[in-house]
């Protein structure tokens, strides 16, 4: 078994255009999430949980996805910190605001679910569930379809470090590596160092959780989740391997959690955490690709865009009680 090193090395180089595109999506994702936090504080939503601090990992993932419907394209089994990925795939920030507000125009759940619970059939984004890490057990199902289908489609599963202690994670490792029946699965661990309010060091015997894939004969690696270029190249390498070999790969990204677990814990900015947006802007400035003024202009463009989207969402209709019988498998009871 040949594995990636514990911390992946950057083999390759991103174009200047791609670097600036990644930065733009990172700012878009960060500013969208910060608006969602303000909405829940202002009583315009019931609960927030999201991805500030994971943009450097989530955006490259979204840009690398083979987007489409059906097993010839990638399936995505995401969790509630996946907004950077979905936005980089082309989702509109206004739709996240709609789900926060629980409007009738929410395209992901028609006001039924709380924010960052995506469901996009035409992009193979499987409905996100609030139950922790069940996606690890579900993902091999679509991967098995893709194995039978042939082609290069793979199933992408994202989750957090605390979820790797769940039985679903071990199930995923086992079902993805049966001899002769290996599956095209990309198993991702976004390690932010906490399980809600419990430090990972109190519950996990090692910070290198991807190494649990080793005894299953699975390739695995680790990357700095605050470095978008390293993440892009590590994800690209892992995905290329899966598409070619039709075997699984487990990749861990060490990320930040800038606003705590959720609105239940206050969603206050934690200044001790690394900020991937701030770091990347400094790096792009040092390379002569993005001045401070140009970076501010990107933030201002998204501020104006989000302000208009926010105002529009506040004027959109809320679900009617009768809507409960729409978009469900069971019919309304006879009256």
Name of the CATH homologous superfamily:
Thiamin diphosphate (ThDP)-binding fold, Pyr/PP domains
Give the overall shape: globular
Number of domains: 1
First-residue to last-residue Cα separation: 63 Å
User: What kind of assembly state do the chains in view correspond to?
Assistant: single chain
Number of helices: 10
Task: Please give the number of β-strands.
Answer: 7
Describe this structure in words.
There is one protein chain. The chain is α/β, with parallel strands linked by helices. The protein has a single domain, classed as Rossmann fold, CATH 3.40.50. Helix content is 40%, strand content 10%. A 5-stranded parallel beta sheet has the order 1-2-3-7-6, sandwiched between helices. The protein has a two-stranded antiparallel ribbon with strand order 4-5. The model is unreliable at 5-10 (pLDDT under 50).
Topology of helices and strands:
Layout: H1 16-41, H2 55-64, E1 75-77, H3 83-89, H4 93-101, H5 135-149, E2 155-160, H6 167-176, E3 185-191, E4 194-195, E5 198-199, H7 200-203, E6 219-224, H8 228-245, E7 249-254, H9 276-286, H10 292-314
Parallel strand pairs: 1-2, 2-3, 3-7, 6-7
Antiparallel strand pairs: 4-5
Helix pairs in contact: 1-2, 1-3, 1-4, 1-9, 1-10, 2-3, 2-8, 4-10, 5-6
The gist of it:
With 335 residues, this protein is an alpha/beta fold. It has helices spanning 16-41, 55-64, 83-89, 93-101, 135-149, 167-176, 200-203, 228-245, 276-286, 292-314, and strands at residues 75-77, 155-160, 185-191, 194-195, 198-199, 219-224, 249-254.
Key descriptive features of the protein:
335 residues; alpha/beta; Rossmann fold; five-stranded parallel beta sheet; two-stranded antiparallel ribbon; 10 helices; 40% helix; globular
């Amino acid at each position: 078994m040949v594995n990636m090193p514990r911390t992946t090395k950057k083999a390759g180089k991103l174009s200047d255009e791609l670097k600036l595109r990644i930065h733009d999506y990172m700012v878009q994702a960060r500013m969208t999430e910060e608006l969602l936090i303000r909405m829940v504080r202002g009583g315009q939503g019931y609960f927030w949980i999201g991805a500030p601090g994971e943009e450097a990992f989530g955006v490259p993932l979204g840009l690398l996805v083979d987007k489409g419907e059906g097993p010839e394209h990638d399936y995505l089994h995401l969790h509630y910190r996946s907004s950077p990925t979905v936005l980089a795939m082309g989702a509109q920030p206004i739709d996240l605001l709609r789900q926060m507000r629980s409007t009738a125009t929410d395209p992901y759940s028609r006001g039924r679910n709380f924010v960052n619970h995506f469901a996009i059939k035409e992009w193979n984004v499987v409905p996100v569930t609030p139950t922790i890490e069940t996606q690890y057990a579900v993902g091999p199902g679509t991967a098995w379809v893709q194995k039978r289908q042939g082609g290069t489609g793979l199933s992408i599963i994202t989750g957090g470090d605390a979820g790797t202690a769940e039985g679903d994670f071990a199930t995923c490792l086992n079902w993805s590596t049966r001899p002769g029946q290996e599956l095209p699965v990309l198993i991702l661990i976004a390690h932010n160092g906490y399980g809600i309010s419990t430090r990972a060091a109190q519950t996990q015997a090692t910070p290198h959780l991807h190494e649990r894939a080793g005894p299953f004969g699975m390739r695995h690696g680790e990357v700095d989740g605050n470095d978008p270029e390293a993440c892009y190249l590590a994800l690209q390498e892992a995905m290329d391997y899966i598409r070619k070999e039709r075997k699984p790969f487990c990749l861990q990204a060490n990320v930040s959690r800038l606003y705590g677990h959720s609105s239940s814990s206050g969603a206050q900015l934690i200044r001790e955490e690394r900020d991937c947006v701030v770091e990347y802007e400094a790096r792009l400035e040092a390379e002569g690709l993005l001045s401070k003024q140009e970076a501010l202009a990107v933030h201002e463009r998204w501020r104006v865009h989000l302000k208009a989207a926010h105002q529009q969402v506040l004027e959109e209709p809320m679900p009617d009680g009768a809507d409960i019988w729409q978009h469900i498998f069971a019919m309304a009871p006879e009256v």
